[in-house]
Amino acid sequence: MRSIGPVLILGLATGSIYALTALGVVIVYKATGVLNFAHGAMGMVAAFLFSSLTRQAIPTLLAAPVALVFSAALGVAVAYGLRPLRRAPRLTRAIFMLGLLALLQNLATAIWGIRPRIVPSLFPSGGVKIIGFVLGYDQVGIIVITLGLVGGLSAFFRYTKLGVGIRAVSSDQDAAALQGINVTRITVVAWVLGSVLAGIAGILISTPAADAFSLTLLVIQAFAAALLGRLVSLPATFVGGIVLGLLTTVPASLEILRPHAQVIPPVVSFLLIVGILMLRSETSLIARGNEA
Amino acid sequence: MSILRAVGLEINFRGLRALDAVALEVHEQETVGLIGPNGAGKTTCFNCITGLLTPDAGTVLLGDADVTELPPHERARLGMARTFQTVQLFAGLTVEENVLVGTHARTRHGLVADGLLLPSSRNEERSTRAEVRRILEFLDLWRYRELPAKSLALGEQRTVELARALASQPRLLLLDEPLAGVSRSAKQGVMDLLGQIRREFNVALLVIEHDMKLVMGISDFVYVLNAGKLLAKGSPQEVRNNPEVITAYLGASEEEPVALGS
Amino acid sequence: MSEAELRRRIRLGAWGAAGFLAIVLPFVLPAYWSFVLVSAVTTSIVALSIVVLTGLVGQISLCQATFVGFGAYASARLTGDANVPFLIALPLSGLAAVPIGLLAGVPALRLRGLYLAIATLGFGAAVQATIFGNSTITGGISGVSFERPKMFGLDFAGDRSFYFLALAVLVLLIVFTVNVRRGKTGRAFAAIRDGEVAAAASGVSLARYKMMAFALSAFFAGVGGALFGHATLSVNSSSFDVFQSITFVTITIIAGVGSVAGALLAGMLLNIMPKALSGILPGNILLVILSTLLLVQLAVAPEGIVGQMRQQEDAVVRWILRRRGAPDAPAPVLEGR
């Protein structure tokens, strides 16, 4: 318990962040059919903004919501930016998101330069001593926030009109439109949700320093977790995120792999992605003809 | 001589048995019809025979060869060709190029020979183009050869698909609803064409069709599929008068023309 | 004159003009432009690898920079440590990238479109973290260095002379590509792109040709990488990361992934355009504006700039034929060539 405890908690905390960002990807994908390659980049912008605001001596608990408001605005902008392409094939829209990724990267470099930015933690430092090891406040905080958000999202999707609307649009956009659901509004809401989730994940994972590249590449972890949820199931995506978090942190704690700790997240994500996709895809040609 | 023998074909989709112990046979020089109400599993049967779907049970023999485990392109190489219910032409290629793809399995030269324009590549290209020209002229498509395949009218597109299938010099040609979308006046022409092809190219035909007149008119033998099972088989006459077959068609849908012989 | 004849002449004219410019520009522009032109050529070669894989065969790959990197590092080792002559090292560097291309292509046997994109993205990230993160291969912070070749009594240390060397390689690769596209392999590739099912039913082995496509694409990208290394004289691993891959693919798609012209245009967009505008605005802001413009361009014309130019060409052809009193204006020719 003494040695595995901290690793597990770290895994859960990391996994929580992966889960949050993956949920953002899945919500957008379900509602719009767009796979947001720029998801990590959108989170990066929020994290950098947060960092700059705190450097202006704005308290973290105020800076974070402000940064997230910008995330929401970014989500709205993307939703409207994609409107000309709404009938385009999924791959084309995904390519557009790739272009947005490049744009956001360049923007971040232009505004903030290439060096990593200091990002203060939202939580007080230190932790609680439990059963022989220290449970960081930040780790607990992350897990609690995640659980809260997931609970809130569940309630949102089940009980609110907008939430139900998103679910309707996810399963059949035309039918939903025929039912009088304002698909445009739903799309915007979905993008706002996705973007804000990306922002939260970006801010949470960035302590102590935010680096544009790894934040943007967080999208790969998001995809891996989202695929574990088959891109449609939110609960499974959440579980997928946690699992991915554990899979990337637990092996890194082993003596043999410690020097390679940096390498583990992308490699594990890649193996998961390819593994899931290959296993899930149909063997016969005809069936595949109806896929992707 | 048996060109095609399918035995015990069985396939399930998510618990639904789409094909159940289906067996059929096509002999050299024969035209065999495969009929049945909508959703009976005729195209699924084709897909199993050509290898686009893997059946859960059963064997497929092409001539002497057991092709059950072979991928579709191998079966094409051994002499099996097909057309599709909705025309599957290659949109980015011209009519001539589409048909040339049909010759793919029979030519040997590869990437490097193509890229460097080696003599082996140029010679093979010349001879396959000559063959393809013959087919296109036979089907009166030669004048369209440079046009993008999709720019032709649907009926002509179907003929191009037919040409592509013939280009592989098949022993067996599977046709999935060759008359679909063809105007009434053109139907006789297609029927005659199929007969001509059978003779000119010495190929056995397995035809899925809803149009009874075509099936009865050109088939030597007919299989009737209903809900994945073989309902009846025999000469066109026998099948037409089979009470079970009549019931199946009457019960299936209002769209099916009741007059099985007209 | 027939419509086809007219189009042929227009195309020939365009290519002739491009060829003329390619030869004349380095002498007309100030000397520092030669390096920009070299970069445009190496980018075009990488873009050509994307045109082959995505435009011709329809397989999406978000890890081209990985192949580029393998080619670059291979060339450094071959010409540096092993003292292999440049002209032999070049194709060998391309070949060095092929195994990685084949590996990246394995998912393509089962996956298409979006899923293949994700898989190749992950592949690129995994290689970036592992192989390109290993400093013995990449030379760490200082990177790996190259030398300009000396052959046939010429020293290619000058940018202009190296430009013509790179240009020659580009032309060879273009000719190879066009030959392939016109032949049996090109038709098989296009068949896979336009209808896998019918392609297989017609006798095309999907596995074999998809692998071949990835191998060919990786070879081109590897050659581009080798030339890039020798052009810039020093590379570090950030030149071959996921962002580079994404940049290559997006620029090529924006330029027009369906044709060789698109590859050339991509090279120009990524190198010449920023340089030409660099006097006006500081580099970073320029990049942002260009990225935005490119994004807008993508939204407006998913078929690429070349696609738009084709439509212009159609309009011009119709106008000319009408003026010459052709009986009726021809119907627009569908995209495909």
Textual characterization of the structure:
The complex is a heterotrimer of chains A (292), B (262) and C (337). Chain A is mainly α and 292 residues long. Chain A is built from twelve helices and four strands; from the N terminus they run H-H-H-H-E-E-E-H-H-H-H-E-H-H-H-H. In chain A, 48% of the residues are buried. By secondary structure, chain B is α/β, with parallel strands linked by helices. Chain B has two domains: 172 residues, Rossmann fold (3-Layer(aba) Sandwich), CATH 3.40.50; 77 residues, no CATH class. In chain B, strands 6-7-8-3-9-10 form a six-stranded mixed sheet, sandwiched between helices. In chain B, strands 2-1-4-5 form a four-stranded antiparallel sheet, with helices on one face. Chain C is mainly alpha-helical and 337 residues long. Chain C contains 14 helices and four strands. In chain C, helix 1 packs antiparallel against helix 7. The C terminus of chain C is likely disordered. At the A-C interface, helix 4, helix 9, helix 11 and helix 12 of A face helix 5, helix 9, helix 11 and helix 13 of C.
What is this structure, in a nutshell?
The complex is a heterotrimer of chains A (about 290), B (about 260) and C (about 325). Chain B is built from 10 helices and 10 strands.
